[in-house]
Amino acid sequence: MKWHHAVLAKIKENESRKVALAIDTSTNETNTVLIQNIIKLFGEVKPDTLLVQADYKLREVSPINESKLTWYTHGKSSYTDVLEWGETEKIDTMFYITDVTGYFYDELTVSYEVYWLVPNSYVPKVPFGRTIKVS
Question: What local confidence, expressed as pLDDT, does residue 1 receive?
Fold first, then answer.
């Protein structure tokens, strides 16, 4: 579980910062147990983390320990709403669980840290931020 140590270290580095964990809910064809474990890790180590659920639009924002995931099966995702929400809410660090196959606006600018937590064996190139393979 090399990823576990990497994610835990990044959470601890951001202990005093405003953090959000976003989840691409556009498909349930992913390791839902893994995602639940990541949510649990954030809930235990940084319980003030906001959980953001989104697919092609922002679906729900809630405290991490008060959320229930809802999965959709259309496979369409866009990261724009979530990343713009992060700017508006002055998020310092965003962790985003996704396969990184969604849509980005070309003009999108993000002024905070983004970590893409990719639950697949294939890790695509991201337009900004850093990736952590969590499979």
Answer: 61
